[in-house]
């Protein structure tokens, strides 16, 4: 018996040592950083266009994947950076998770908002893509630490940490930050400590000078309807396969159908918004907020409650915030025979611009900061929205 113990003891000790070393190896392994979590979804993008004299012009940006089928969000500046090129000659290429001088994946334009400086692309890849997780910028307080990562033209892959310094500047769709975006990093994701994306890098208005800005992620909502439609199509496809699969009973199908119905309900209340100051053929100016539903049918936008704050812009670059006007409600008007596309006419709003321009000689021009809440035909109120309208 004594002999058996003497032979078993060393084996147990050796096994114990192996466990200890394994535990130490796991403990010593570096934890995945928030930047590592984002990197597989980072996209380096290059656009090339041809001018009238056949000169080739290129523009670069960073973007990030927002769906498993290759939808990528970036900035519209990728296209404006090409200058005056023939639109038919524009070619967009991308790399996912890495960057190179000559990206290999073909990309096409899905949707854009020039006013918000946002662009949604489809990158054609043979492999599934990993979309980022989204947070809510409204939950991020001023002076909170945030991060970003992207592909700099000069320095390649870069990561940054900074903070939000101003959420309430003159451009309501831009927040000021200390994140030092470099050339090529516009369009990069801005994310919180848990790796959830809360914004898109806008950069500086003038290269090498002035504040750095990012666009809160909620302003990309109108473009993101495409990702929700894609998710709905995938769910419908899965239901079709489950209907013919013997292992899936009524309970599983009921859960799946309920999920699809929830997606449809959300999409029915999803629409794009655009504000315009425009002049009719007779020369009369008007201020309008246009909408277009993502899916046809009820509920429709019925009423809008608006608060307007005039903003005076002086020639020296400073601004003057004038008093916010009392709230006013307007009723929707169809743009076509269908209520799926329509607008709200902010009657007499143009006179606000004229009044403040005449009353303040030092003001070069006046823009309108518009805060509004939409009530749908079923009584639902959509979350409040903001936009800045320029004459």
TrEMBL record:
Keywords: Signal
Domain of life: Bacteria
Leader sequence residues: 1-31
Alphabetized InterPro entries for the sequence: Peptidase_S1_PA (IPR009003)
Pfam families referenced in this protein's UniProt entry, alphabetically: Trypsin_2
Keyword Transmembrane helix attached: no
PANTHER family reported in the protein's UniProt record: PROTEASE DO-LIKE 5, CHLOROPLASTIC, SERINE ENDOPROTEASE DEGS
Name recorded for this polypeptide: Serine protease
């Amino acid at each position: 018996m004594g002999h058996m113990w003497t032979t078993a003891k060393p084996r147990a000790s050796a096994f114990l040592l192996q466990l200890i070393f394994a535990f130490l190896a796991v403990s010593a392994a570096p934890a995945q950083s928030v930047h590592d979590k984002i990197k597989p979804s980072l996209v380096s993008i290059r656009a090339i266009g041809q001018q009238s004299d056949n000169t080739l012009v290129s523009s670069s940006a960073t973007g990030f994947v927002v769906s498993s089928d290759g939808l990528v969000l970036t900035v519209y500046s990728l296209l404006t950076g090409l200058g005056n090129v023939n639109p038919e000659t524009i070619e967009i290429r991308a790399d996912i998770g890495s960057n190179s001088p000559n990206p290999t994946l073909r990309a096409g334009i899905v949707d854009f908002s020039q006013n918000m400086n946002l662009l949604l692309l489809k990158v054609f890849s043979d492999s599934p893509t990993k979309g980022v997780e989204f947070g809510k910028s409204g939950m991020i307080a001023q002076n909170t630490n945030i991060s970003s990562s992207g592909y700099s033209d000069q320095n390649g892959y870069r990561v940054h940490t900074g903070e939000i310094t101003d959420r309430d500047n003159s451009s309501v769709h831009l927040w000021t930050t200390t994140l030092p975006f470099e050339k090529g990093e516009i369009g990069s994701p801005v994310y919180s400590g848990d790796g959830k994306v809360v914004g898109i890098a806008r950069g500086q208005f003038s290269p090498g000078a002035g504040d750095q800005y990012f666009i809160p992620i909620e302003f990309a909502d109108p473009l993101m309807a495409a990702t929700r439609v894609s998710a709905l199509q995938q769910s419908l496809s899965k239901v079709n396969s489950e209907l013919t699969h013997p292992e899936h009973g009524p309970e599983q199908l009921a859960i799946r159908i309920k999920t699809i119905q929830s997606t449809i309900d959300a999409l029915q209340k999803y629409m794009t918004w655009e504000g315009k100051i425009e002049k009719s053929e007779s020369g009369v100016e008007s201020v309008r907020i246009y909408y277009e539903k993502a899916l046809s049918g009820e509920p429709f936008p019925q009423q809008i409650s608006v608060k307007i704050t005039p903003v005076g812009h002086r020639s020296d670059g400073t601004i003057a915030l004038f008093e916010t006007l009392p709230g006013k409600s307007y009723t929707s008007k169809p743009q076509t025979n269908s209520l799926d596309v329509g607008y709200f006419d902010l009657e007499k709003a143009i006179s606000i611009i004229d009044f403040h321009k005449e009353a303040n000689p030092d003001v070069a021009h006046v823009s309108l900061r518009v805060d509004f809440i939409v009530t749908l035909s079923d009584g639902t109120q959509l979350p409040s929205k903001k936009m800045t309208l320029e004459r």
